[in-house]
Each structure stands twice: as C-alpha cells, then as structure tokens.
Amino acid sequence: MDFKEELNKKLELINTELQKYIRNDDCPEKILNSSVEYSLMAGGKRLRPILIISTYELFGKDVEKTFVFAVAMEMIHTFSLIHDDLPGIDNDDYRRGKLTNHKKFNEATAILAGDSLLNYAYNLVLNDIINNKENQNRKLQALQELSYGIDRMIAGEYIDTEYEGKEILGQYLEYMHKNKTGALIRASVRIGAILAGATQEDINKLTLYAEKIGLGFQIKDDILSEIGDTEKLGKPVGNDREKGKCTYVTKYGLEKSSQMLDEIINDAIEIISSFDKSDFLKELALYIANRNK
Fold first, then answer.
1. Half-sphere exposure (Cβ direction) of 248: Cα atoms closer than 13 Å
2. CB neighbours (10 Å) of residue 64?
3. Among candidates 81, 76, 169, which has minimal Cα distance to 119?
4. Mind listing the pLDDT tens digit for each residue in 51-104?
C-alpha cells in the first residue's frame, strides 16, 4: 500500500462528496451560503471523515454507506473551527493560509455560518435515517456518537478558554485536549465501526486507538505552534504562547512533549495492529506524529 496515494484518494473522495452539498442558489442568504462554502472548501486534512471511512474498511467494502456521516462530520469540524477563530474565543486572523471566516465576511456571518453547518450536518444524517431504512439502528447509534462527540468538543473548548493565561493541572490539560480535539476523532472511529457492524470488543479496541491518536494530534499541534513553519501551517507560529494558552509545550517543554507524542503514537500502532487490513490506520498514526502542518 502506498500511504500517500491512498490518503490523497480518500481526500479527493471527501472533497467530491462535500461539493455535492454546497448551496449556490440565488437567494436572500446567498452571502451566508458563500461564507459556509468558503470555510468548508478551504482545504484541510479531512482527517475525521477519512477515519470514518478507513475504520469502516476494516470490516466492509461498501464505503459509500459512510458518506453521509463523513460529510456531516467534516461540516461539524468546520463549524468548530469557524467558532474557534472568533474574537470571543481565539481571535485568529488566519486559518489554512486564508483569512478566517469572520475576517473575510464579518463576525455575525461567521457565527451563523458555523450554526448553519452544525444544523446542516444533523439534517443530512436524519434525512438518511428516515429515507434509507437499511441498518437504521446502526445509524441511530452512530448519530448518538456524533452528538456526544460535539458535546465533549464544546466542553474541551470551554476549558481552553477558561484556563487561558492561567496555570493548569496536568490532568486538566489532558482532559481539555481529549475533548476539544480528541472527541470528534474518537467519534469518527466509533462511527465507522458502528456502521460496519463491528463487535463491542472491536469497538472498544478502536476507541483506545482513537483516543491515542486524538491526544497525539493535539500534542503535535502544540509542538507545531511553537516551532512550526508559518507558511506551511497557514497561521502564525507562537500564537498559543503569546495568548497564554495552556499547551503540552508550555506545561512540559518541547523535549518532554515530543517523548510523550512518540509514546502515544506507538501505543496507537500497537492497538490497531491487532486488526487485519490495518496498514492504512497504522500509517495514519505515524502521519499525525510526523506532519508539518
């Protein structure tokens, strides 16, 4: 398996599916729809929908059955980024090398664009459950995972804002990261497994894998925020420290954070290796640890 080729293939698949749900009607809320498209189609890793599809592939081949949840998950992730960038939260000017939504449009439009994406995601999933009755119970379970993931992501975001500029205990830092970043990653892996009809034992193992890579993803983000390349990151380096944000680097330093990242990713690889056809998910864990943006 060529990991980069497979990753790009999945990335293109997600972008094609997302494009189907762009609203281009000439209507009074046309600017709002443009605001939604601006952030949704701004690029990005598409990690969460890729995890839904890739986890499903451990058990089944008919991956088109995951597409509605994959699209919904990326809409929700984009909603979280738009709101995360707002003046009342992180007050960021750039995301993925482009102006943040509220800078491109305005604050009110950005808030409503995020709200629109969140609601659109629920509508897509509910419409599929109502009109496509195959495996309805699995889809309802997957919807519950999606909803719970959003709840935990918001909780983590609150902790992030509450402790800005303050000293934070190590367990609170891990709690924040496991929720703010890790909750939707965990939900993505569990959704893929649930839709595929995986056993509870397998779902439990995959949940551990997801929790490891979710925490690893955020630790790597913390490291890149300190020593990354601004051009590659698409946003200024050093922002977190300047704002007094609590990160693994500010808490433990670069060397210790890097060691923790290696240990977490190695644990994730060990867990996922117990599954057949897990090569892509093993390589994805390494990709998370070694990425430069």
1. 24
2. 11
3. 76
4. 999 999 999 989 999 999 999 999 999 999 999 999 999 999 999 889 999 999
- Residue 275 three-state SS: coil
- The pTM (predicted TM-score) of the whole model is 0.94
Average pLDDT over the chain, rounded to an integer: 93
Options 2.30.110.10, 3.40.920.10, 3.10.25.10, 1.10.600.10; CATH of 3-290: 1.10.600.10
What are the phi and psi torsion angles at 98 (to 5°)?
-125, 160
Q: Which residues contact 113 (CB under 8 A, 6 or more apart)?
A: 32, 35, 36, 38, 39, 82, 101, 105
As a whole number of angstroms, the distance between CA 137 and CA 123 comes to 17
- Alpha-carbon distance of 222 to 228, in angstroms, equals 9
Q: Which DSSP letter does residue 57 get? A: T
Chain-centre distance for alpha carbon 118: 14
- In whole angstroms, what is the distance from residue 183 CA to residue 163 CA? 19
Residue type, 5: E
pLDDT, one tens digit per residue, over 226-248 is: 886 676 566 566 666 666 677 89
